[in-house]
Design brief:
mainly alpha, 10 helices, 72% helix, globular, fatty acid biosynthesis, lipid biosynthesis, ELO_fam
């Protein structure tokens, strides 16, 4: 894998037009990227252990009563909700700033600078958080709830996309912060639900709709990058990442639409009958 060119890692440390980086957000970006590139086995091992944990965890819980885990689940979701909010506030200003410029999609998806240490730092935190979020599945297994394919595939695939995207330090990684924006609402919803707070099913339906919209936009971003290439415009992205992540996002989008139909459309039909 080629090293990053110098101009691609020149970041703005202090006041920029969209965000100010704090001292703790300034880190060795090139060194961290190289570590990720040299240790991809960590990502594959994590995903492998995750899938094995699902299989053996369900077998272990088969003849055992479910755990309640009310307060651990609440604090788990609360922590992820707060993390998602912070990531959104620190990372999304750069994306919004670039999208607001002329030819905004090209600027945000394909151009390296302008870039900020704050955006880079929280982008790294997002990648690491995808390992932490695998713990969502542990709660489902221990509480003996139904584990659908959408759940575990989505978690494993997201970790894969984010890890490889950081290895290449893809400019399109800026769009990851949209995912954290959605998670801000999603994990807040789960936190209240863990405490037994009665929430209208319309809220969960709205959250699923928001997730579908996010995934559809992800497919649009990948398609836009392919279009820029077809026009012969330079784009600091790699075909492996764009094609791979675009395909996975499209698969997850189909699964979410299918889940939406099964959960809400079918339910509405039953009510009408």
């Amino acid at each position: 894998m080629e090293l990053l060119e110098a101009e691609e890692v020149k970041l703005v440390r202090i006041v920029s037009e969209y965000v100010e980086a704090y001292d703790f957000e300034v880190y060795d970006i090139v060194g961290t990227i190289l570590w990720f590139r040299e240790h991809r086995i960590v990502m594959w091992t994590t995903i492998g252990l995750y899938l094995l944990g699902i299989y053996f965890g369900q077998k272990w819980m088969k003849n055992r009563p479910p755990f309640k885990l009310t307060f651990p689940l609440f604090f788990w979701n609360l922590g992820l909700a707060l993390f998602s909010i912070i990531c959104t506030l620190r990372g999304i200003p750069e994306l919004l700033y670039l999208l607001s410029k002329p030819d905004g999609m090209y600027q945000a998806a394909c151009v390296g600078p302008p870039h900020n240490f704050a955006t880079s730092f929280w982008g790294l935190m997002i990648v690491l958080s995808k390992i932490v979020e695998l713990g969502d599945t542990a709660f489902i297994i221990l509480r003996k709830q139904k584990l659908i394919a959408l759940h575990w595939f989505h978690h494993a695939a997201t970790l894969l996309i984010c890890w490889i995207g950081y290895e290449y330090y893809e400019t399109g990684g800026r769009f990851m912060f949209i995912n954290l924006f959605v998670h801000s609402f999603m994990y807040s919803y789960y936190a209240f639900k863990a405490l037994g707070v009665k929430i209208s099913k319309n809220v969960s339906q709205a959250l699923t709709t928001l997730q579908i919209a996010q995934l559809a936009y992800g497919v649009y971003v990948a398609s836009s990058i392919l279009y820029f290439w077809a026009q012969g415009r330079p784009c600091r992205m790699h075909f492996e990442t764009v094609s791979f992540s675009g395909s996975i996002i499209a698969i997850v989008l189909v699964l979410f639409i299918r889940f939406y139909k099964q959960s809400y459309t079918a339910r509405d039909k039953i009510k009408m009958k």
